[in-house]
Specification:
Strand order of the largest sheet: 8-7-6-5-9
Radius of gyration: 19 Å
Structural class: alpha/beta
CATH class of the largest domain: Alpha Beta
Number of helices: 6
Shape: elongated
Largest sheet: 5 strands, parallel
Distance between the termini: 40 Å
CATH architecture of the largest domain: 3-Layer(aba) Sandwich
Number of domains: 2
């Protein structure tokens, strides 16, 4: 049995889960992964991740702002036996459309909303299955333009085959068409068409 410890103290959400997922993928059934974090929210997030993967986990407070989440890797979530890898395998989920209709996530404090949106797009890049299309409109148009805090993550999604589209009317309204830095420009007809044909729509 192998035991692995990763220190995620001081990391913002969702990095502890992202790092735990990456570490768990390198382990086999029966191996144990310990994740060190500094807040209860991270503990809860890690235990939800563990439960979702079918792992057995425990959380323990070690000291002031020091927690340990121990996961035992089970067969279903364990790393598979080595096999020939297709480097060009399509990881997109057909029919999945992500709609970014604003440059913040949710309503309330704009700084919090911007931080949540940044975390959402980052977490999106770490999913096993990526969306087929990301659609940006209204103030969401700012997300695909120069200076956006999520620009690099959108570029990463595009490099993985995800189609990134931004509303042309929105770019013109805000005077930022010349700032578009990722993906292409779309129109309302195509927006409606893609929404109607989507298998499901994810809207943060």
């Amino acid at each position: 049995m192998m035991e692995k410890i990763i220190d995620c103290r001081g990391m913002a959400c969702p990095l502890p889960v992202v790092n735990a997922k990456k570490a768990a993928e390198e382990l086999a059934a029966g191996d144990r992964l310990t994740v060190l974090v500094d807040n209860e929210v991270a503990v809860q997030n890690l235990q939800r991740f563990s439960s979702h993967k079918g792992y057995v986990s425990t959380g323990e407070k070690k000291g002031d702002k020091e927690y340990a989440v121990v996961m035992t890797i089970t067969g279903e979530g364990a790393a598979p036996q080595p096999e020939e890898v297709d480097c060009h395998r399509d990881t997109r989920q057909k029919g999945m459309l992500v709609v970014l209709s604003g440059n913040t996530m949710g309503t309330g404090d704009p700084k919090l909303g911007a931080a949540l949106m940044k975390a959402f797009v980052f977490a999106l890049t770490k999913q096993d299955q990526l969306p087929e299309t990301v659609l940006c409109y209204n103030t969401g148009a700012y997300l695909s333009c120069e200076g956006s805090e999520v620009l690099e993550d959108l570029k990463l999604l595009e490099s993985e085959g995800v189609t990134v589209l931004t509303c042309g009317t929105c770019l013109d309204f805000y005077g930022i068409r010349d700032k578009l830095a990722v993906g292409g420009v779309t129109n309302m007809y195509e927006i409606v068409e893609r929404m109607e044909s989507a298998g499901h729509i994810v809207k943060p």
